[in-house]
Every structure is written in C-alpha cells, then in structure tokens.
Amino acid sequence: MQVRFTRLAATLALGSLAAVAGPSQAETVKLSQKSGTEREVTELSQGWKFHFGPETPAVTAPDFQDDGWQTVSVPHTWNRIGTYAPARTPDTGNAQGTGWYRLTVAAPAAAPDMRQYLDFAAVGAVADVWVNGKHVGTHKGAFSRFRLDVTDAWKAGADNLIVVRADNSKPEPGNATSSVIPLGGDFFVHGGIYRNVSLLQLPSASIDPLDYGGPGTYARAAQVTESQAVIDVRTRLRNAGTGRNLTLTTQITDAKGSIVATAAQPVSLEKGTADVAQRLTIKSPHRWNGRADPYMYAVSATLSDGATVLDKVTQPLGIRTFRFDPDAGFFLNGQHVKLKGVSRHQDWLGSGWALTPEQHRKDMELIEELGANTIRQAHYQHADAWSDLADEAGMVVWAEIPYVSGPSLTGGEGTPQLWANAEQQLRELIRQDFNHPAVMMWSIGNEVDSSAMLGVSKEPTKPLALLKRLQEVAKEEDPSRPTTMADCCEDLGMMAKTAGEQVVGTADLVGYNRYYGWYYPKPLEARAELGAQLDKFHVKHPQLPISVSEYGAGGAVSQHSDDVTSGFVNFIGRPHPEEYEAWVHEQTWPAIAARDFVFASWVWNMFDFASDLRGEGDSIDLNDKGLVTADRKVRKDAFWFYKVAWSDTPAIHFAGKHYVARAYPVMTVKAYANAPAARLVINGRTIGEAPCPDNVCEWKQVPLAPGPNKAVVTATANGETVSDEMTWTGPDPMKQGIRIDAGNLAGSVLGKRQFGSDTFVTGGKPMVLNLGGFGKMTSGPPRTVEAAELRLFDYWRQGTDFSYGIPVPDGDWTVTLHLFEPSAVPPETQAVTVKANGTNVLDALNVAKAAGGSRKELVRSFPVQVSGGLLSLDFNAVGGNVSLAAIEVAR
Ligand code: GCB
After folding, report:
1. Residue 537, SS3?
2. Which domains does the chain carry?
3. pLDDT score, position 777
4. Which residue range or ranges hold the Glycoside hydrolase family 2 catalytic domain (predicted)?
5. 495: CA distance to ligand 1 center in Å?
C-alpha cells in the first residue's frame, strides 16, 4: 500500500538516497530507490541466498560462507504443495521447518537523524531477523505486515547483512509455531518470505511505522449525508529524538487528484508516540458504492517542520454507509444489496503463496467475471495488494484472522501465549486493513467449535473465552465495523459436533459453513435441508444477521458423471465428478437466493487450493471445491452456473463441456440460462424447448449419434437472443458396447472399455469399499477385493431389489455381470436371482460360494435379445443382498 499510494515529495529532507557503491562482494545488492515515492522505500527483492533446514547461529554472522546456498528473489516460498496427480512425487514441496535467507545490501548514506526500518509484508510463519549479526526482532504470524526499527544495528553508507529465519513447522509442542494461530485447518501454511521486503528510511520524527504494521493514518466517515461527509482521521506520530514543534496537515483528494478538504494542526511532539485526531468535511460526497461505482478518494497525512516535509502517508478513502439487518439483509448506502460471492485462498498451483501482482489481478478478474460482489478472505489476512484490488472492484470484503479449528493442541481454552498471538494478529489485521473501504466485517474465528476435528486436538477445546476476548479487541480497534465468525457445528449433530459451548452470538454477525449435498447424509435433499436449517437459525437467533459463509462440493474436471443422483458421494476421496459439484450449487444457491434475511453467501471456494489433508478428485494435496482450477486455467461447470445466474444481462452456457467423449448413447443435456426457457438443436434436429427453473435447463435421455453431435442451445431474455454451442462425441454401442460402473458417481476408461457412471437404475443404494478420510487417504485398513479390475469394485450397488432399464439398440447381445459378496461373513442364505427382459438368467445363486469366498469377483455372462431399444435387468436377493460392481453389454 505504502508504495502505491505514496507518490510525491520531491522536497523531502530525507537525506541523499543515491545508492552508494558497496564493497566489492559479489553478493552485495545495490539498493535501487523507488523513484517518486514520498517515503524512501527501497525494495529488497533480488539477490537473497536461501537454504532450507536447521542451521547453527553461525549463519547470522557476517563472515558465514553462504556460497553453496541457492540464490532466490522474494516473494519466495519453499513450498509448492498440491498437484493434479493421484500421488505425491519427490518434488511435492510440502517441507515444513526452518528456511534461512541472507542478503547483503550496500546501504545508502543517511543523515544522522534518519531511522532505518525493515518492512516485511509477510513471512510464513514465524520470522526472526538479524542485522549485522544482531537479533533485531521476532514476528509470529504468517499473514501480517511487520516492521522492525533496525537503526541501532544498521550501518548507513556501508554493507549490511540481513538474515531471516522463517519457520513453518507443524504446530506441535516444542515448535516455534505451537502458540501461533492457526493451530490447524484445511489449508497448508507455506513457509518463507512470500511477500515483499523493503527498507524504509524515515526521519526520527515521522508518522509511526511501528503501529502493528499499519499505515499510521486511519480515516473513517463518521457522518455521511447527501450534502456532506464528516471524515475523522487519526494519525499516530513517533518521535525517536527530542521534543519538536511540528505541523500535521491532512488532505483529502478526489479521484482526479483535486484537494477537497484540508486540516492542519500544530503538534508539539515529545519523544515517544502521540495520536492526533483531525476532522475534515467533504461537500456532496461521491459514495463508494460497491460494484456499481467504487469511487475512491485518497487521504494523506503530511508531517512537516516548517517548510520541510518529514513524512507523508497516503491511504485510500471510500465514503459509504452500510448496515446488516437480521430480517432484511445487507444495505449499502441505504440500498438493499444481496451479497453473493466466493471465498478465496491465496495460493496458486506452482507458486504457492509467493504471488506476483499479475496473479492477484488475475484472481480478481475471474471473480469479477463470475459476477460476485463480495469476497471472503479465507482464513487469514490477505495481501495489501489484494485488498487494493477489492477496493477498486467494489467488492464487499469479509476479512479474517486465522483463529481456525480451536485455541489449543491439547484441549482447554488455550495458553496465554496463544491468546496474545491471536490478539496481535487481530490488531494487525484491523490496523493494516482499516482504510480499505471494501472491508466491512472483521471475522474473529472459523469453525473454532469443531476443534476435535481436523487433527488439531484429540480432547475437546473451549474456544468461547478467546472468541469473547477477540470480540472485545475488535471493538477497541474499530467500533465502526461489525465482527463476524464462521460456525461449523451449531445444531449439526452429524459428522461434527460442538465441544459444548454456544459460540454463535459472540460476534455481531454470523456465517454458517454448511455442506448440504456433500458432507452430510441425504445429499439428494440438499436444497430442502439447507433452506429449512437457515429458517431454523433465523427463528433461533432473531437479532442476529445470518449468512452462509461456506457451501460447496468437490469437482475434478477430468472426472465425469452421467447421472449425479445415482452414484456414491465420496466427499473426501475419489472420484469427484465435475457435474456433481455443479449440481450441489444448482441445488443450494436457490435456497440462499430465496431468503432475504441471509445477508450474504460465499461459495467455498473460488479456486482449488493447497491442503495436505487431501487426496481427492483427480489431485493430491488440493481441496478441489474451487469453481476454477488451482492453475486458474479451467472454469468448472459450477463457475458457469454462477456466471449465468448472477449475470445482469442475458446469458447461456452448456454444462458438461469437459465431458466430450460420452459413455452412453443417450445423455442428459444441461444448459444454464437466465431466461424462462431454452431450445435445443442437435445435429440440425430440434430436440425441443425446456423450461429453465433456477437457471437450469435440462433435456433428459437425448439420443446421441455415434461420432460428433453438434448441439446448439438458444434462449431469449429481455428481447435479446443468446446461444451456445458444443460438440459431444457419441459412442457406437455396436462396436464399443455399453458399460455401467454400478455404484460409481463417475465413469472411467479401463483399457479400451469405457464405463459410464451408475445410471438407468431404480432401487438399491450405492456403496463404497474404502472411504477417504481427512489427514489420511483412507480411514481404517484398506479393504480389498480379489478381482480382475479392482477399480470396478471401489463402488458397487447393493440392495435386495433393484433394476436397470438400459437403452440398447435392438439385436443380440451378451450381458456380463460383475458380482461379489462384500461382507466377510455373509448370511448362509445369501442368493441372487437376475432376470433379463423378464427371463431368469441367474437363479438363486450364492455369490460367495460360487466365487470361492467373500470379496472375490464373480463374473457371469449370458446372451440376451433386445427389441424396443431397452434392456431390463432385475436383481433380486433371495437371501442377504445383491452386490453388483458392473454391467457390460457387448456384441
Ligand atoms: C470448512 C472449513 C474450510 C474447509 C472446508 C472444506 O468448513 O472452514 O477451511 O476447507 O470446510 O472444504 O471442508
């Protein structure tokens, strides 16, 4: 922020900053001064030496030889975790521990009263810094900016050695991170100097750079009417020298740079710090009005000594009013706005957390393209550059500290050290983000009531006391914004339970993280269950503004479903077909949209992100609930659903564009449109018009010709006609046959045989052999089956009665069934009868006996003759269950 908003000041009396030539050490970095900045800010990005691993204190000494170390530039991280592959490889990049950085800089000469500060925009997760062998500070917390006054160790006009130790060890007793939030959570804490570092040189009397890393100048609109806005500005000054009489001049400029308000105040500044309050008035203020008009002023505070400017800080200023109503939702500048948006984590595939400005920009562009108007900055403070982008885009931001999953590794309320750290990270967040008009709520916790989960602690913790303390701290820091928190478990009683404390109601607002359609039983009832639960919360907490802070499902763009309602939903395993994720959003968004009292919702998540708890979908170490892949390259179906649903202009898009080579000769064609109905034409033939309730238009059982099927969908809304095109490849059943992977939510290709996902079925239920698990890839010892194709037995369909009606061209076919008995000790009476088109083809067959034991594949084939285009297969258990892994129908 400082650099971006700090243009001016040719008249600064900051000493000459031409870089002096340093001694002739090869690794010495020459400082290059940012020209035109009002503060003397020097980026320290190039020429760092880096080494990962434990080291002795000798590395902090100037004479240490770091020749063998790697040369890196910052932003830098040693972690590159997460990839679209089934298993980790040697270069997974998930190392946790200590990384060391060394940089020798040829420092500029400086006037005697100049102070030298090192500014770290973030270091993951605990940083220790030495200058010329002297320890100058420690910072705990991976997300906030910190500055250190290094003057006493610094040698102006000479070489200076900066050494940084960054530590992202797993938070475990004895590690530097054991009292630093977060103690756990479903995301990977990357290590290293992953945001910028700079040297800041200021006179001994300046705007305070040591104010929890904040800008030192804080502005807020105290009163706003059409005719005027009253802006209160508080500036913290620091004087390391003797008392001085100075002047603090604060100015507000409009977007064109014209001065619209000025206040000047004499300040008698003693040694130490002092807060100066100023009030300015802007006539006929132009509001910051969200996405519609994110108009910004700038506020600058200038400290001067007569004619000489000592320091100047410029910050963004957006003038807006907002409120949250428990019944009517969110209001911006008096107008109701339904907040609809996404959460964002800060990692990119291949870059980890070390992002470039272009990467931040790309993320914001995608979120804007989606049509969102709000962003949850999960689960920690995001980069200043990111919050700038949010201001400029007009996003309403939920800003958050990483108090995630609980306050203690061992149960209880957490240690004083942990409390102090949480408090520090909250003060840093609020001061550093205070001036961003986009930020409208401070989140003080995420799922802290689920603390027995996610491997944080075995014993239940008590999160409430710390949450209450953080609520107080947030109010001390900023009474003008509400607090919020994300709850996991209130009234859930399913997979996650609270540790017994009522945490909802501690913050001013609440967000519910709820995964109907995904983590909970009865996925097919997602819409009704979410709606009913939100209504219950509204009745239970009539005074509390309610939002949905997370919802979603995993989606892998290489895994596909022919029928999302038939297969087993393995939420922390494989597969995660893209179509299922989209379906969960199609189901749940209307339940949110229909409720005005739900002030906001945030899809979990905009992007797939790194988490070492995961081995799911088509990836390892990634949470795949993104609307867009972690490389930002592929927009998943769910992205298009929202893009259409949230669009103000007519829009249409086919779903299923990544599932080109279809398994079955019929398909459900789906398109998203914000029109009442849409027309489908395939290969020039009109299929018909379908209604598009809740933006989803569907044509079931659409026949596909073998080879390319060019589809065109068209809709008219507001007098405008929009269309989309797609070509799907139909299979040739006469050559390829038709194959069903029973119980599986996704299809797959095994050699030359393509199996579609489970479909065409009535009755029975899908089953799983090995359920995935958080923190490990399977829960319990893996169960195996003796079978030719193990893959077909990951899932199966089980029941006493179920039947398939499969579209098969007329003629003679061979049907092959893959059966097995999953229970170790099946009932003696277990036996299966199967009818094909009404005729018995298997008669009271005991599967385990016929296969020679339980969990052994039994293959049975028989001829059938199909007429009328339909093969019906009826499965009936005479005793026990029928367990069917796959069906093959071939010539
Ligand atoms: C949650 C957590 C979030 C996880 C998410 C998930 O409730 O707040 O950190 O990533 O669920 O995907 O399970």
Report:
1. helix
2. 2-203 (2.60.120.260), 217-317 (2.60.40.10), 335-608 (3.20.20.80), 666-730 (2.60.40.10), 734-890 (2.60.120.430)
3. 47
4. 328-643
5. 13
